[in-house]
Structures are given as C-alpha cells and as structure tokens.
Amino acid sequence: MVLNRRRFLKLGLTTAALWPTVGMADSTPFKALSALNAVGAGRVVRRHSVCGMCRAGCLIDAVIEAGRLLRVEGNAADLTTNGRLCARGLAAPALVHDPDLLRYPLRRVGERGEGRWRRISWGEAVDTITGKINQELRAGGAERLALLTGGSSASFIKELFTDFGCRQINDSAWEYCQANQDLASDLSFGRGGGLDMSFEQASCLVLLGSHLGENVEVPVMRKFSRAMARGADLIVADPRFSSVAAKARYHLMLRPGSDNALLLAWLKYIIENGLYNRELESSFDLEALRVRLADYDLEELSAACDLKPADIKASAELMSSAAPAVFVYPGRHNSWYGNDVQRLRLKAVLNVVLGAESRVVNDTRPPRVPEKARLYSTIINRLQQGRIGCLGIWGQNPLQAHGNTYRTINALRQADFVFCCDIYPGEAALYADIILPEAGFLERSEIIVSPGRRRAALRQAVLKPRFEAQEPYWIVKQLSSRLGRGRRFGFDSVKERLTDDLRQMGLSWDKLQERGFAAPLIAAAPLPASVVSTVRIRLKNELSNGTIDQLLKFAAVSPPPKGFARLLSGCSPVDSRGLVNNRWLRHELEENELWLNDRLARQLGIVQGQELFLENQDGLRSMRPVRIKVTPGIRADCLYMAHGFGCQSSFLTAAYGHGVADSPLMVRSIPDPLSGVRGWRVNFVRFIKGGAPLPIPSLDLPLTASSGPYR
Fold this sequence. Notes:
- It is a single chain.
- The chain starts with a helix and ends with a strand.
- A hairpin with a 2-residue loop joins strand 2 and strand 3.
- The protein has 4 domains: 5-96, ADC-like domains (N-terminal domain of TfIIb, Single Sheet), CATH 2.20.25.90; 106-167 and 371-520, Rossmann fold; 193-358 and 532-551, 3-Layer(aba) Sandwich (Dimethylsulfoxide Reductase, domain 2); 565-704, Barwin-like endoglucanases.
- The relative contact order is 0.15.
- The protein has a 7-stranded mixed sheet, sandwiched between helices. A 6-stranded mixed beta barrel has the order 21-25-22-24-23-28. Strands 12-9-10-11-30 form a 5-stranded mixed sheet.
- By secondary structure, it is α/β, with parallel strands linked by helices.
- It is 30% helix and 18% strand.
- The radius of gyration is 26 Å and the shape is globular.
- The longest helix is centred in the N-terminal third of the chain and has 19 residues, at 122-140.
- Helix 14 (376-384) packs across helix 16.
C-alpha cells in the first residue's frame, strides 16, 4: 500500500475536534512521497520499535522493503495509543531518508561558525575527543568537563560523564519542564508523594497556559479526548485562544504573568464560600488558610488578571460542582516568569482543597532542588570564564533550546574544545571541533522508560545505520575503552548491555518482544500506612509555622515597556523538538507566524500576511522578518510565535531561512528563587517597518469576545 499524503494525515490524530491542522488534508500532495513509498518487488517486512519523533515513546511498526523504510504505523499493542500516531510519527520516513543527515565524522578546518570541515576516521575522532578529556581531567578534574544533552540517545554519554564525576550535565527538557515541577511536588507532598488523579478520572479539567492541542503527544491526547467525550468540563486560562481553548466552557484570557493571582482568587472564593471538599474540615485548618487569604480582595486579584470577577467566580463554582473529580493540570514547560515553583505549588493546593486524592509522604530526604552545576546558565558562565575546557553537545541544539542565543554563540566561539554528536549538521555543529554522526532512532537500540506511564519499552534497531553513522552505545564504548573509564561499557554489543539492564529491571528482551516491545515496570512496594497519609500534613505544618506566607504571596510581573508587547512562544503540532528539517512536516508548516491582536493591528496599520522585523527591549532584531497572523485570539499586550524555527545552519536545506527563532530575542531572564531555573517570558518586542521602530501603543484595549463562558 502506497502511503500518500492524504493517508499520512488520515492515519494521524490531526482532527478538527482538537488540532488546528485539519485543513492540511485538502492541500497539495507531497511531491516526495512517490519516490519514498513506491512499493517494488522486494519482500516487505514489519518490525516493532518505539517512535522517537517526540518524547511520548509510542509503539510503532516499521514497514520495510529491501532495507528501505516505506512507512511507520502505530502498533495496536500499545494500549496508550490504540495504534494511532501523530503527524510527527508518521513523518519518520522523511527523517530516515533525509539527504542532509550527517554521514561521516568531521573535523573543523575553518573558524567556528563557518561550517568548514574535513572528513576523518572514527579512530581519529575518538582519539581526539578522549585525548582532550584526559588532558582536562589531569589539569583540573571533572569540573573541567560539561555536557549538554537531549533525548534518549544521550543516556550512555550521560552515564560515562557521571562516571568521571562530572556534575555539569544539562538537559534543557529537564531544566525547563521537570526541575520546577519536581521541587514543587516535593515541597507540597514530600519525596514520593503526589496527586492520584488523571484526565480520565476527571469531570472537570483546568489548564493554565498548557497547550495540549499544539504540543501533541498521543497518549496524553487520547486521555484528554476520552475525558471530553465523557462530557468533562474544561477551563482554560491563557492569554491566547489556543486550539484546546476551543473546547473549553470557560476561556479566561488573563494578563500574562498573572496566573498566581488567578489561583489565589480561586482559592479565596472556594474557601470563603464553602465550596471546598468537606473532608478537609476534620484534618486541615481551613480557618488559618482563610485568614491568610483574607488580605486579598477578589476585585483586586481580578484586576491583576484583567478578568471579570464574575468569570472567576463562575469557573470556581464549576470546579467545585465537579469535585473531587477535578484535575488542575500541572503542565509540562513551566519556566515562565521566575515565580514558577510557587505557581506549581498553588496548583497542588487547589487540587487538594477541591478534594483530589493526594499521597503525602513523611520523607526525611531533602526536596529535589536543582543542583546549580546542572543549570545551563552556570555552564555558560563557566565556559565563558575559561573554567570548562571540554564541552560535549549530544542530541541537543543549545542555540534554540535556551534563550540568549548570542551569548551561547559567543561562549561556543571562546570555548577551548567542543565536540558534537547528532544526526544533523545543525546549528550546534557549526561551532564544534569534532562532529560525530549518530544513528537515527530507527537505527539504534535503547530502553525507553516512561515513569509517568510506569512502563519500559524496547526501541530496537530496525534499519542499519547509513554511511558511517553509529549507535550511541558503540560510540560511547569507544570513548570508554580509550579512556579506561566507565563501569558498564564492557559489553561487546548494545544488545548484551540492554539485556543486562532489562534483567536488573525484572524484564527480558524476549518478554518485551512477546508483549509488543513494552511492559509495565515492576511496581514499587506499597508504603506503610504510617508513612502514607491523605491528611494534608505539609500544608498544615506550613500554616502553623508561617512558611506558607511565601506561597500565598503575589507580586505582579513587570508590564511591557512603552511601545513594546510581551513575546510568548510554544509548540506546533507538526514542527517541534528538533524536527525542523523534516520535509513532510515542513510542507505542512513552512514557517511560523506571529500572532497579533486584530484591533491592535488596525491601529498599527498592519495587515494579515505582512512581514516585519522584530526588535526586543535591548535593541536586538530578528534575523529575518516574520509573517503576521492577525487574529482576535490573542490579547493586545502580547505576541505569540511557534518555537523552533529560524534555523541558521545552511546544511539543513529544508529548514534554513524559514521562519523566525524566538530564542535570540529572549535575552533577559529571571531565576526562580527556589529552583534557580530561569523564566524567559520577561522579554518584549516591537515591530520594525521600513527600518524604523513601529511602537505599540499603550492602550487598554478591551478583551476579545473569547473571554468568559460560551459553548
């Protein structure tokens, strides 16, 4: 069966009900599909593996003919997806057959950033890297090493650097999506505690700035879809009318940065009006919490959010009517304004007050405060100070993953030695001394552990690596052998190593094959009754000793300077997580757009499709103009664009020069006082027209009609 473009989209989950990409089905078919998917006379085989086009780890079947990938389909054995895949997963053949993939190890011969290299052998590449690592270890120890990693392929290199004693290992997904949440959970419930709630159990879902419709992960979206199909209510608080907001009973178009004020307003109204879960009265000092919240005026909190008090009250009553089957979703990316841990803690408090079952643990271990050495800002500072002599970049693009791109470039230019391992000669590779070609996700084997779904899956290589690309285990084993370091790299093959890893998890390669390459993790032994309690111990203690005052403190974020608007960014359902060069996905969304409020656009004389440069508060301009999307679906005091565009590596021919990157404009940040993780939504931009600034008027424009209840 030939996979044409219409079938490519039909197999995915891009439906009109949830995602804004349904119009793709009627556009021009892919020109490349006939070449990639024409079925010849060879024998067609089907092999199981795990998708690597995003972090969801969906089970897939790779359909292969004569060593060539024809298509990727969902594996019906995956109960979390029911055999469905998103557009990204279905576009895997365009990744596998991309002509821009790295082919050989390379050594830089020009200046950093020029992109001039010569082909070298694997032996020369490994010897050069290990020679530099040994030199730095002798000179100053593990503090002279650092690693920027991303994705599942980096697990072995992280293990090796950890064996050196290196603490400067950063993963942008951990820093911006997990670190704040881990700390907030530990402070609220103790290590190992949390909420026993999911989408499927909820009758009312509450999302604050969580773009489920754009950040498509099939297992999460299926749970969300089932909840909506059951008739669950949805409340969305977002300055933008996101695709998921179209399903909401209440869309609260709040002022950016006022999320904490909204959470405090909800808590105040729910407690003062007796809308909380009645079981709290016997185990929790609600009166003490009521007294703390009495200092706030609901009208003032509403004004801080730029919302009507009636909408805050009505949405709170909707939550209460569904309690305890209410779930205030913590979300993923959460490093926004520098007050992020407390915002996540307030979500936990709201869940508890509404009656969500929680597991509070009397754990003596300290909370998981991110180690300073792991933070990206620390690594860049030390790199610029000359305190790091060898930097590895593995499966990550720090020029896009972090803000202040120009500072990153300067640091990489000044670095003593940089090696990069990737499937593409991307932006990070431009600044590397040695580049290693890594096998793609269908060409390598690894274990994918999903703690959220409590399962382990085996990603097995279903294709041979192209040219001289190699599996991550093979690469790290070579490094380990030359260095004489690394405790678990003595296995001859990756299969032997993974077999031993699975054995320690109580699983086996054969058992995973029998189960469709995924199996539940062995459940942890239940905690004794004396340790687990639904009594809200932590919050009760904080009320008694006064430490809760910091949690209940609200300080407004700085407003845009005169003539500017706040810049926000997020994911696209067909282009995110480093898939910028995928030709199938690029066909669907060639470049990103900048969302601009329609009333403000009329005042500025800007029209739909117009292209304008952006300039931030520090005078830095976008590298190219961005196309304007005029819409009533965004507030007038902010602008929005999809993240991940504006690639500056000319070696990625499908991505180069398409769209505008938000990261170079995000030069300011505020560290969270508890976690140290920096929030980047504190940058502002204005338009440049005809080479001159086009200031945004400081007008108190009324909100669009999307604010408030409707269905």
